[in-house]
């Protein structure tokens, strides 16, 4: 594929993603999506905190 055709495909994909995001953010489901994303982010943060604590405890046990 040539450079110009890659650029055209990239532009089309970017435009499609932009339209989809714009449509979704203006729809009634926006609040539901934001709540789901916040919930998933909080779960992920809690998993990272638990792993961090686990590693800190393991390191502390090894040093003592």
Describe this structure in words.
By secondary structure, the chain is mainly α. It has one domain. Helix content is 91%, strand content 0%. It contains 2 helices and no strands. The longest helix is centred in the C-terminal third of the chain and has 34 residues. It is elongated and about 60 Å long. The N and C termini lie far apart (60 Å).
Rg calculated over all Cα atoms:
22 Å
| Share of residues in helices | over 70%
The whole-number mean of residue pLDDT values reads 87
The count of β-strands is 0
Following the backbone from N to C, one meets helices and strands in this order, namely HH
Q: First CA to last CA: what distance?
A: 60 Å
Could you say which structural class the secondary elements and strand pairing correspond to?
mainly alpha
Name the shape in a single word. elongated
Name the beta content range: under 5%
Biggest sheet details: none
Organism: Chitinophaga cymbidii
Protein name: YtxH domain-containing protein
Keywords: Coiled coil, Membrane, Transmembrane, Transmembrane helix
């Amino acid at each position: 594929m040539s450079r110009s055709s890659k650029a055209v495909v990239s532009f089309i994909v970017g435009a499609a993603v932009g339209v989809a995001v714009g449509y979704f953010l203006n729809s009634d489901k926006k609040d539901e999506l934001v709540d789901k994303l916040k919930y998933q982010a909080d779960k992920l943060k809690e998993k990272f905190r638990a792993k961090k604590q686990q590693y800190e405890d393991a390191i502390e046990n090894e040093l003592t």
